Amino acid sequence: MDQEKKQCQNCKKDFVIDAEDFDFYEKIKVSVPTFCPECRFIRRAVWRNERTLYRRTCDMCKKNIISIYSSKSPYTVYCNECYHGDNWDALTFGREYDFSRPFFEQFKEFQLRVPRLYSIVFKNTNSDYTNGTAFNKNCYMIFVSDDNEDSMYSYWLMHSRNTADCHTSNDCEFCYQCIGCKKCYMTKFSEDCSNCQDVFASKNCSNCQNCVGCVNLKNKNYHIFNEAYSKEEYLEKIKELNLQNHEGIEAVLNKVRQISANSIVKYMHGIQNANVVGDYVFNSKNSIDCFGSNVIEDCKHVTWGDNSNNCQDGYVVVNKSTFSYELASSVNLNNVKFCFGCQNDYDSLYCDFCENSNNLFGCIGIKKKDYCILNKQYTKEEYEELIPKIIEHMNSQPYIDKSGIEYKYGEFFPVALVPFAYNESVAQEYYPKSKEQAQKEGYFWREPEERNYKITLATKDIPQTIEGTNDSVLNEIIGCEHEGKCDEGCTTAFKIIPEELQLYRKMGIPLPKLCFNCRHTQRFKKKNPQKLWHRKCMKSGCTNEFETSYSPDRPEIVYCEQCYQQEVA
After folding, report:
1. pLDDT tens by residue, 510-555
2. Does residue 60 lie in a domain region?
3. Whether 38 and 152 share a structural domain
4. In a domain, 33, yes or no
5. Would 504 be classed as within a structural domain?
6. Rg (CA), the chain
7. Residue-wise over 376-408: b if at least 16 C-beta within 10 A, else e?
8. Distance CA 335, CA 361 (A)
9. Strand arrangement, sheet containing 227-228
10. Total number of domains in the chain
11. Structural domain for 253, as ranges
12. E strands of 247-321, at which residues?
């Protein structure tokens, strides 16, 4: 079939379905989407509350827990021990499919009955204040992060130690305020650096040591603002820069922004790719419109994919997932469609947090079962007879939301079924909306909980250096510099924990002036947007064209792969 232009049912903008997309939809037996890729992404992302935590009790054992569901949430929430224990069985909530009512209407009621897991965590030690995490030890306020130790306030941090305030960084130790860094040691305020040591406020450097304010350097020592110094000159100059003082740090960061704004950049962040369109993609091939992914093949519209193939429209698709579609939070799936939080499943449709199961439809919380519909067990023959009838029913009696949007078979869950508020979810980070806008589009909005505290240390009174900071700061409630006047989820105040203060002292870093939410959002904004523009290589004489996340109005000099390798690498 040829390429086809359609109008998004949600935002009314035109979008294109390519010929190879029709082949994929035919192969996995789904209908053509009626939402554009951007609206489909938001529809999935709003299911992921990644960083908003609440104190509440487990609805079974009544133990106090830290959960992604507030105590005001309408759902039944179990702690990890109760959820995975033997004192309840998801099959006891099973019900008959009602052919007189739309499927999504039934599923919404079903969600309110079946218990939900309090947070998505696995085998952590002394790391209660986390979510989307596994195999972490002594970690605090890290999210979507695995195998870390003694680390805090970070997002998508992997295999790292003694690290704080980092974003999408791997195999780092004693790193602070780093974005996209790999295998770095004692590196601070830096972006896209690899195999670096004692590097400060630098960007896209590799195999460098003792560098400050540098951009695009490879295999260099003792450089400041890309200028070489002897070791003695370097150490003397470092003293003048006063990098342990807030004022000195900001001065260096401002100069680096000026240098990097006019620097050469490669059209995309990624290495060892073949026929890949997107950004922050590594070791992948034949994948289009993909972001933040590693080792993916034949994928499209996937964000945070890893070691998966032949998948489309997914947010977090990892660990050998294949031939799956419209997923959020998926692990090791085969032929699974329109599901959230499922792992180790195959041949399943419209499921919510099911594990190690196969041939499921419209199930919630099922574990190690086969041939279930709305948590009711069927024989293989009964199941295979019912599924086509249900699909036909979804098409003949679709769910229609308050905005008049029609949901037939082939659409992901409607907005009304989302378990989180828009401003709790990661969708707010990628596509920020005001309260009025979100509610107009049918999303729930959660007002901030009332905070009963009094700020005892104003931002202006924070010590300029860590040497001037004594242990009494642990008792202070520090005012965030933004004072809640930003659009970054400001909590207006924050505290310093003992482990944090100890790490700042080891690294010579002054106390932060912003709360964790504001720090996280500012790091997120430094990464290129999840959007592509068609551009030409800016190297004189080169005619190469590409899709890039660097918009045309940005100041960077954008090169194709070949020109970048010749000029910089």
Report:
1. 999 999 999 999 999 999 999 999 999 999 999 999 999 999 999 9
2. no
3. no
4. yes
5. yes
6. 25
7. bebeeeebeeebeebbebbeeebbeeeeebebb
8. 13
9. 185-188, 197-200, 209-212, 221-224, 227-228
10. 3
11. 136-264
12. 264-266, 274-282, 285-297, 300-318
